[in-house]
Amino acid sequence: MTNVVESATETEETGEVLIVTEAARKVVVEIRSKEEEPDTFALRVEVTGANGVDYTYDLSLEPIVEAADDDHVHTREGLTVIVPDNSVTQLSGSTLDIPSTPAQGGLVIRNPNRPNPLGEMGQLELVGDIAEKVQMLLAERINPALASHGGFASFVGVEGDKVFIAMGGGCQGCSLSQATLNEGISKAILEAIPEVSDVIDTTDHQLGENPYYT
């Protein structure tokens, strides 16, 4: 069976935050059929947190009339889906489907969005040249977040508009370090310092505590 995956643009055009494949719809409708007056129930999908580089979710059936005023509510082919307002951004463009391996059972959410491994960074006024701004951002925002995982990031240098970073401690050789760099460190630097075009990891991960590049 071919999975149904729609782009964010298509999602905006249909008004749906979360696309439900035909196979997943059948599973949900079958479960819903056990409720009294099943047509009055909707599938509620909410982002509850993050586990590494993926979001965690809660899926439940709830009466349609209990949807909050700011919930995103959409009905297609007899199934109403409710997404809380605070989960819309994280779920935008996602697809609810059955696992690729049918024997696995249950449902899966294929989500193109990823949580920031560093958490909420907050605003910080940066001053100086690129090198000074990067070092301030590392000291004040990035490394305090990495410290909770036993890691840190060090400023190596600048070449033009490219910044070079090295990761150490628990981040060196960690299997999640690439995600931490791309989704956390690099994103934070690029957003906070617009004059930077690229962030390059110079870490020798083979020397880390849990090397995965070997």
Description:
This protein is α/β, with parallel strands linked by helices and 214 residues long. The protein folds into 2 domains: 103 residues, Hypothetical Protein Aq_1857, Chain: A, CATH 2.60.300.12; 78 residues, Fe-S cluster assembly (FSCA) (GMP Synthetase, Chain A, domain 3), CATH 3.30.300. The protein has 5 helices and 10 strands, in the order αβαββββαββαββαβ. It has a 4-stranded mixed beta sheet. The protein has a 3-stranded mixed beta sheet with strand order 1-6-7. A 3-stranded mixed beta sheet has the order 8-9-10. The longest helix is centred in the middle third of the chain and has 18 residues. The N terminus and C terminus are likely disordered.
> What would you call the structural class?
alpha/beta
Helix content: 25-40%
Pattern of helices and strands: HEHEEEEHEEHEEHE
CATH fold call of the largest domain: Hypothetical Protein Aq_1857, Chain: A
The strands making up the biggest β-sheet line up spatially as 3-2-5-4
Biggest pleated-sheet summary: 4 strands, mixed
Overall structural domain count: 2
CATH H-tier superfamily of the largest domain: HesB-like domain
Q: Please report the first level of CATH classification, the CATH class of the largest domain.
A: Mainly Beta
CATH structural architecture of the largest domain: Sandwich
Q: Work out the radius of gyration.
A: 21 Å
Distance between the termini: 37 Å
Overall pLDDT, averaged? 80
